[in-house]
Amino acid sequence: MRSRVAVLIAVVGAAASLPFAAQEPSAADDPPPPSAVAGQVGRIVTALIGSWSGAMTAAIPEEPSETFAWRMDCTEIALGAGVSCTMGGKPSIGHLAQTCLVAFDPVGRDVHYMCVTSMGEVHDHDGQWTNEKTIEFEPVAGSFLEEPAIETIRWTFPDPNAIEMRTVLTLPDGAAIRFEFKGRRRQS
Q1: 77: burial class by Cβ within 10 Å (0-12, 13-18, 19+)?
Q2: Looking at the domain assignment, is residue 9 inside a domain?
């Protein structure tokens, strides 16, 4: 038994001493992911990739709703494994922007959506396709203007070139702050 352990340690030690570049396989040599995972990955990329424009409506309790132009540009990343989306617009309070990564997580079997905003927020969400046109993300505890809030997000794709993104922040008193983007994919 000890001789097998010694051989195993020697083999692992020898492999670890090889130059890193020699151990790294090229992307062309990697087998494709299983078809179920590849289908989910492709579904996210196909649904989001491209340039989108439309209107964002912000509804805050006791304030008039405001609608303003919003743009979203999503590009393929990591050899097609996901997308990076930059978004922004200019409501009356000044420019707003966020950058998000979106991908299918084969381990958790869900859509992963992580954003950083110009208001200093970091959002990290897991979601599921609930039907052929809708992704619903799990509620996440966060804050809005230093008050605790529960954030829920739903994306709907009414057709291949349309998107509706709805974010609701529910405050402890039950008041809801809503952000709704309705956009169209611009044809290049």
Answers
A1: middle
A2: no
C-alpha to C-alpha distances, 41 to 34, 53, 54, 57, 103, nearest whole angstrom:
11, 24, 25, 29, 7
| pLDDT 10s digits, 49-78 | 999 999 999 998 888 999 999 999 999 999
Phi, psi of 42 (to 5 degrees): -60, -35
| 120 in a structural domain | yes
Domain hosting residue 107, numbered range = 49-185
From residue 103, how far is each of 39, 96, 156, 166 by CA, in Å? 12, 23, 16, 19
pLDDT: is 174 or 35 the higher one?
A: 174
Helix (H, G, I), strand (E, B) or coil at 72: strand
Q: Which of 148, 142, 153 lies closest to 173 in space, CA to CA?
A: 148
Rg (CA), the chain: 22
Q: Read off the CATH number of the domain in which 124 is found.
A: 2.40.128.20
Q: Examine residue 93 and state whether it is found in any structural domain, yes or no.
A: yes
| Counted domains in the chain | 1
Neighbours of 131 (CB within 10 A): 8
- Percent share of the chain, pLDDT over 90: 57
Record the pTM: 0.76
